[in-house]
Each structure stands twice: as structure tokens, then as C-alpha cells.
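Look at a sample.

——
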Amino acid sequence: MPPRPSQAGGTARGGRGGGGAARGGGRPSRAGPPSLIGRGAQMTGAGGQPSGLPAEHVKTVGVRRPDFGTVGTKVEVHTNACEAVIPQHIIYHYDAIVSEKTLPPRLTIQLIKQLQLQPEFHPAGAYDGKKNLFMPHLIDFGGANSRDYNIAMNGNSQPRGRPPRVFKIKITKVAEVNPEMLQRFVEGRQAMDESVQTALTALNIVIRMLPMQTHAFNARSFFTDTEIKNVGHGFQLRRGYFQSLRPAIGHLLLNIDLTTGMFFRSGPLIEVALEVVNHRDPGALSLARGLPDRVFRELERFLKGVRVSVQPAARGSTANVVTISSLTREGARGHVFNLQDGTSTDVASYFRRLSGQALGFPDIICAKTARGAVLPFERCTILPGQLARKQIPPDVTREMVGFSTKRPAERLASIRNGFQVLAYGQSEYVRNFGLAINENTFPMSIKARQLSPPQLLYGTGSKVESATPHDGAWNMIDKKLYKTETVNRWAMVVFENPNRFRKDTESSVVQSFIRNCKSVGIHIAERDPIVEYGSGQGGFPQVSETLRRAGAKCVRKNNSEKGPDMLLVILPDGGNDIYRSVKHFGDVAVITPLFSFVISSESIIQQGVVTQCLKASKCTRAKDQYWANVCLKLNAKLGGINVVPDADASKFLSDPENLTIVMGADVMHPAPGSDAPSYSALVGSVDSRCVKYIPRTAVQTSRQEIIADLESMSKGIIRDFMGYQQFIEMKAKQSCKPKRLLFFRDGVSEGHFREVMAQEVDILKKVCRDLEIAPKITFIVVGKRHHYRFFPPKPEARGQADRSGNCPAGTVVDTGITHPLEFDFYIQSHGGLLGTSRSAHYSVLHDDNKFTSNALQHLCYILCYIYARATRSVSIPAPVYYADIVCSRAKNHYNPSGGVDVSDVGTVASENFQSYIDAFKPLHNLHTTKMYFM
């Protein structure tokens, strides 16, 4: 394919470097991958800075890229991407409407494949499984704009002896798509519009077509059967490959990564069902024999939508494939139905009569289809390759993390093997559209920089008053926390069995706790606390009564009208329900006071309380490092500050003339397949160093992306910020207004950028007007779920990798793979532990502060070092991390014994949604100004 001159009159399209290589040409040396900086960015402008910036007239969704960063040590890193050459030819877009609206994609793909056997569809096009069909040529409809086709469904999707089902498919021309618009977009000469998005969508469907026909798949991933692990609960894990064509500066890139899919375990249905209910005896699958109704409903939710192969009752019949819709509450012997001759029989008798063999388990529950057919479990086999879009049990989550973890070099080698599975070179669809995937450019080498870590300051009394992180980590040796709180009154509440947590253990834990608190500067005034034992078997009422009893004894012992400053709670292993009850008791405002003890006839005490939970198995004989981590959490909960960055490293944040408030926000949605409520959270800094954050949280409509209560939550936090500045930091009232507002937003996909920016930025502006302040607002989306990974080219070389084999903390990338037009960058801010580290992707949607790349990248990196729980930098700015935690704690705002299902499964009727809002208890007032969530 000959090269086409660029419209700028320079190198040919696809050229790499100054030599003007032809499209797809210029193969790199086998010694290493080529360097990719993006076509525009390969040229340098004034001052030697890359100049791949968009044309001035081009509109953007977010902020236009102002420049490229220059601060830091320049390095190169590899990334899991290769070049793709954009086709030159027109792509034709058609609607493909199948008469049966409810067919799953796997069947519509099969139908369209059969349709394309018709001569007018040669060479074949690419279909998305829904309604979009893209063709490399114009289909001849004889002058018409559409045509109807009748296509028979082949295969075993219909019962034996019946003719194949025939489906009507209407093909209608929609538009002609010019890939030149996509080329102009990556070159920075064209805005993202419908023509660009459609061209990108079409090419992504093209590369999906071949693997979709041979592998289990979801949106952009394909899963093989070569690496499978059964993990219990009826699930198995499979290794897979993610792929996506993504526009970058001057190039279209193919991003390929490893992924893990959770599947239903294939095999006999009765075996899988027993695994789900954690039982060995098939007879246990009977409500009449004691199967709990709750377990029955869990099993029904698990199996709904699962496809099974059914051995029919009649001997010699071919197995049919059906989908389970529900379960019967009675067994096959108890389920009676009418035959065509008007007589009635039960399912067990029906199968015995036609097959000549009695069912082995006629009294256990049966599966049921949407059409009402009742199927004995023992006649059903779960088909392989079915993705499970269900809530993941906690122990399966742990297995999933372990299965997914690969060290960088191992991960890169496995990704390279994915080219054989995805088979771009063998795909007729890729060839038909003139799309070229330059596999020889994998992995790509891109320019990066290493940012220096901030100096961190500790408190008065430290032998070593500062720390310089190395590979994103430091230690607490000889250091006191920056600002600590005193614990005057406290109690220890033990929910572990007294036989396993004896008096000597009790004393040892108390002394270890006090000693280690002292070592970091936390003063524990009460040396001999109340110790109360209790059982969590009675649920929230019994747990709360035990906690109240401990509080009452603490009040009486200290002859005070104040309750304890904190409760140290010892939990047994597996005590998740007790933990939730403890947190509900301590964190939220309940109708009855948390501590309501009559000290005198007039005095009633009412307050929230800090709770610090420890597992009995961990805190007994724990080492000092364990207790140091406990102290980090406790001090933040009490209102202290653990560490601050040096003022020289954070001049923007600590500028006394321009007070800055930093906010982090997130929305947490329910598990796939559930329409349970979503939860939103907002945290905001209150101090002048931007290290102390206060929370707000709310419940909102399921899967709503916009933060519903952003106005009230942000208004409350800004008011508290100004109050803290005036009454804690003792500033004059007129000096307490924030001049700058940095808003970090998590949980937003690229497709929702425009919506979130339009609504949430406007809400923040309105709040500021209402409060009569005028801070300059910068709104940044922080993404964690992208698939770009960075790899050191020579891990053994000094400074190229940390001990885990990952790129060192502080690696920043803002060229090569970044957006063609908009202000975005990647920072790998944390040191590696296990597996391959993932950087955070920052997209700037609004920026009144007019940040340069250097300034904003440095600021984001600094914020990754103030996470109060750890002496390590984290992968995202601390306020974003805090918002994530507050979201995850939202379920604790419901009374554990209140009858509200917060299991993330099932459905919520619209008329019942208000009950979730009504039952959601707000945070106790005393916690709204503290980091209770630590």
C-alpha cells in the first residue's frame, strides 16, 4: 500500500522520526523496540520542548494540553502497545436489526456470519453483536437503501426434529465513515466528534471479529481455556486478553493487556449447586429437608441466566441447550403439570416413563426455563465459557488477585503471546478493511521522566524529624507523628472467645498498645482501661449493648460526663458481621444515643465514638510494625496529623496568601446484575497543608454517574474548611476563604467526561457563589482502570527498576500514549510490591488555575505521599483514596438488624428505593470533622 503525503506536506502518514518512512515501513532493529513519541511530538519547538500540541481552532471536551513536562530525570520505558495504521478507504455503516430482540450477542453474531455468506456481503464486514454492521464496501441493494433477509439458525439451539428457526434481518445503510477524520484527530487537526468516534468504533469491532467467533468474550476482552482455576462457590477463573485501539499523539495505537475473567464452573449442575451452598449431600438441595430459604434465593440468583445442556426425558434424544430462569421450590416428585391428553403427572414420573429410569434425586429442587419447562438438576450440565457477571465473594476476590498477579517481565511475555490468540495477521476482517497492525513495534518505547519524591516532616521530639522516601517508601524509626492527640479515657471490648483471649493475653495487648502509641507520640493517659467481653452472636442488638456497657463503665470509672475517647475492639477471625455492627454503632447518628448514661437526673451524655478494630489472631504477639500501622490509623481518626510534605516541596498547597482546598470524590456502584443503590462520597481538606480531610457520604439512584448530593456535601465541607481556618488555625475571618479549589474525581469513564464536567463543575461554581467565595477551580478525573502498563527496558540496570522489577515510583508519562488534544498524563507514583504496577491516569477537564504540566504533575505526585494509613506512597492522590474508602464504608450506615438488604445482589423495586434513603443513617456530627474512615 503506497504512502500518502500528509496534508502538512511533510513526512508520509505513519512516518516514524525525521526520515519519513512509508506507512507500515521502517521496520525497527531486532535489538530493541522503536521509540514512539507521537508524530507531532517528535519535532521540537522553542526551548527544545516537544511541540505536538493541538491546533488552536480545534475544540476539546476537557482542557487543551498546555505543554509537555520537562522536570525530572529523562528515561525511556516500554509499554504494552504497538502501532496501528489507519485505513485509507471509506467504511460503510449499516444497521443490522434482527427480528428477535432478545437474542444474546453470541447468537446474533452467528446469524450475521451466516448472512455474510450471501455474495453481496463479500468481502465480509464486522458486526458488534448488537446492531452495528460495518462493511469495507457498499452493499448492492439494487438501488434501495435497505433489504430484508431470512436467515436460518443452524446448530443445537432448537430441539431435535424441529426445523431451524428462521430470523428476519433488516440491513439498512446509515452512513459512510471516512477514516481520514480519525487521522486528522490523532494529528491534532480535528476535534473528537461523531465521525471520529464512529471510525474508531468501527476499527475496534474489526479487530474483535475473529476472536469473537472462537473465544468467550466480554466488551473488549477474550478468554482462552488454556489457563483455568476453579476457586469454589461455583466459579472458575480464566486468563484472557484485553485489546483496544486508542488514539494518541500522532498515532493510532493498539493497547493489549492481560485480564482475568470470572466464569461459571462448567460440569454437572448438581455438583456446582452443592459447591454454591457449601454441602456434599445432594439431598441438602431440598427445602423440605432444611435448605434455608436465604440459601435457596442465593442459589437461584446465582443460576439465573446460566445456560445448561439438558438430556431430554426421551431415550435417544439429542441434548438441548436452555437458559435457567428460576428454580422450583418443590422437587421433581412434587411438581405436577398437565399433559397434552389432559391427564396430569409429576416431573419425576414423566422422566421415568419416557427414559425407563428413575431419577436419582426426585425430591431436590429443579431448574425452570422462561417458558415454564421444569428440569431436574441431575439432567443438566452447565456449559463451559459463560462469564459470571455476579458479585464476587471476598475469598474469590483474593484468589482472583493471586491468579492475576504477574511480575513485569512475565506479564510482558504473556501479553506478547496474546498476538497468537488475537491473530491479527490471520484475520480476514483486518485485511478486508485495510487495517495494519504493526506487531513488530511491540512493546513500544516511550519517553518518560522520574520525579523526585518530597521531603516528609515528622513531629517535635523525633530523633529524625524528616524522611526522604526511596522507591516510594520510608519508615517510622526514631520519628514521632507530626501532630498527635491524647486518649484520656478508653475501653477495650473483646468479642473473641475468652478461652482463646485469656487474661495474660489481654494484659499483653493493652501494654503493647500503650507502649507503641507512646513511641509515635500518642499519649494514652489511662493505663488500666476497662475491659469488657461480649458475644457477637446476637447481631447488632447484642454488639451495641456490649459496647454501651463498656462505655458506661468507663464513664463511672472516670467520674466524668464524657464517654470514652475511643474503643479498642478485638474481633475473632471471620467476624465481619461484628465489625459492621461496631462501625455502625460508632460512626453514625442513631435514634437512641450511642452513649446515653444517666450520671445525674439532669445529665445525659450523647456522643459518637472512635472505634479501632483488631483481629485477635493478629494483635496477640504482634510485632512493633503491626502496632505502628495501628497507630497511624488511630491518630488520624482522633484528629491528629501523621506527616506533612516539606513546604518547599508543596509550595502551591501551602501558600498562605492563596489558601487551597483539595477535594476527592467517588461514586461506588453495585455489583453487575444488581440495581441496588449507588453510594457517593466526598472528602475535603481543612488545614493549610492539605493533609487533613473530612468526609461526606450519601446514597443515590443505582448507577447514576453524577454525584446527586454534591451541592450539599461540598457546601458543608467548604464551610468546615473556613471554620477550621478561623478557629483552629486562628486566621482572621476575612483570610479564611479558599482561593483555589482542586477537585479530584474518581469513577468516571471517558464516555461520561462531558456530562460530569458540565454538571459537577457548574454545581461547584454555584456552591462558591452561594458561599460568596471565588476560588479558581481545577477539576481532574483520576482513572485507575486503564490498561497501559510501563516496563523498565533493562530491569537489571541501576535505577531502571525497583526491587519488584517495576518502574520506580515517580515515573511520569505525558507523551507517546496520551490524548491527541487534551491535558492528560500518567504517573506511577507508588513502589511495586507484587505483580505489575498500574499508573494513575489524570485527565484535566477544567482548569481556572492555568497549571503547567510540570506544576500539576508535581502536585499530584506530592498528594500520593500523604496517605495517613501508610509509610508508602499510594497509586492515586490521597483524597481520591479516602473517597474510595468512605464509599466502601457506606453500607455501615444501615442498621445491621434493620432489615435493609445491602448485599449488592438482587433487585430493588422503584417504590422501595425510598426505603434505602430513609434507612441510611448520617454520619455522627463529631465524625464529620475527623478522618473516622481510617
